[in-house]
UniProtKB/TrEMBL annotation:
Lineage, opening ranks: Bacteria, Bacillati, Actinomycetota, Actinomycetes, Kitasatosporales
PANTHER family reported for this sequence: ALPHA-D-GLUCOSE 1-PHOSPHATE PHOSPHATASE (PTHR43611), FLAVIN MONONUCLEOTIDE HYDROLASE 1, CHLOROPLATIC (PTHR43611:SF3)
Identification of the protein by name: HAD family phosphatase
InterPro entries: HAD-like_sf, HAD-SF_hydro_IA, HAD_sf, PGP-like_dom2
Organism in which the protein naturally occurs: Streptomyces albus
CDD domains: HAD_sEH-N_like
NCBIfam families documented for this protein: HAD-SF-IA-v1, HAD-SF-IA-v3
Pfam families in the record: Hydrolase
Gene3D superfamilies: HAD superfamily/HAD-like (3.40.50.1000), Putative phosphatase, domain 2 (1.10.150.240)
Length: 208
């Protein structure tokens, strides 16, 4: 594999700012359901969608059947789901990453939901930001499964040790390190940009 420095980023909570919007609680209140009912009824659907075991049409059918929604309310429910999922772009980090393209290999590794690629491409153009986007719903496994890290390295043609992985979830950062990567826990743009710069300059520690 090429001896090339590489930066691989998560999407939600890193390239996208995705605060909780409270949409599920609002739907439970609207439908007269106890708190937690949506997760109990649809949790397995969400998990299946994260690994591509169901398609968007089946997701809508399951939402309709399990919550008793007509077609119009299913569309409204899914619109609220995607509004929270997509959040807003982290413009500062995206602009910084865009400027890295000549200096290193760039990839995305994201735990996702069926339909994410189309929506994120349309909203934010991540396909033009990096060379490879690896979505969990397309490869059938989610981080922190080590296979997810293997797939993104293979598609980029890079060695794990040459990669810096950036994620906002501790268990995923730890899994990347176990897979042989350097990894950084995203807690803000300034620290993340500094860590990426150190990785590319060769001044970063071997781990962390």
């Amino acid at each position: 594999m090429a001896d090339s420095r590489c930066v691989i980023l998560d999407i939600g909570g890193v390239l996208e700012i995705t605060p909780t919007t409270g949409w599920v609680a609002r739907w439970e209140q609207r439908l007269g359901l106890a708190a937690g009912t949506v997760e109990r009824r649809l949790g397995e659907v969400w998990r299946a969608g994260a690994v591509g075991a169901v398609g968007e049409r089946e997701v809508r059918e399951q939402v309709a059947g399990r919550l008793g929604l007509d077609a119009a309310r299913v569309e409204a429910f899914m619109a609220d789901l995607w509004a929270e999922y997509l959040g807003t772009p982290n413009d500062e980090l995206i602009a910084y990453v865009r400027g890295l393209r000549p200096r290193c290999r760039l990839g995305i590794l994201s735990n996702s939901f069926v339909g994410a690629r189309e929506r994120e491409t349309a909203a934010y153009g991540f396909d033009a930001l990096v060379e490879e986007i690896v979505y969990s719903h397309e490869i059938g496994v989610c981080k922190p499964d080590p296979r997810a890290f293997e797939v993104v390295c293979a598609r980029l043609g890079v060695r794990p040790r040459d990669c810096l992985f950036v994620d906002d979830v501790v268990v995923n950062v730890e899994a990347a390190q176990e897979a042989g990567m350097q990894a950084h826990l995203f807690e803000g743009n300034a620290g993340t940009i500094a860590r990426i710069a150190a990785h590319l300059d060769g001044t970063a520690p071997a781990t962390g």
